[in-house]
Specification:
The protein is α+β, with helices and mostly antiparallel strands. It contains 8 helices and 3 strands. It has one domain. Helix content is about 50%, strand content about 15%. A 3-stranded mixed sheet has the order 2-1-3. Helix 4 packs across helix 5. The longest helix has 14 residues.
Amino acid sequence: MSDDEAWKKIYSCTPPWFKVPKTFKELVESRDADFNQIVKDETDNGKIEYYRQNGLPEPFFCAFATADGSFKLLGDGNHRFLDCLYLIHEEKKDFNSDIQNTALDVIYLQNFNQVLLPNNIWRNK
């Protein structure tokens, strides 16, 4: 899928970073300690500034999903997406041209729990 549809779909994906899984939508809405920590890390390593200056030159993402699509783990582009979300929501940066070029490949797995082992990612799940 591509353009706005892909960008919006990524909001429902989950990054594999936190002890309790949260979608990007939940992270942006909550702006909680997890969100703030990742933004701090990304600011400290220069990535926020990179996207502030360059936009999103690689708007391509890949997610892994359960067979029914009820759970999607963003496999490639986690940091890029959050960095851009931060700039869009906190600094009102215009990423419209990048969003129009967004592509999301979703790989639906019959045996998601065997391939990605969510209990190894989220031990509390």
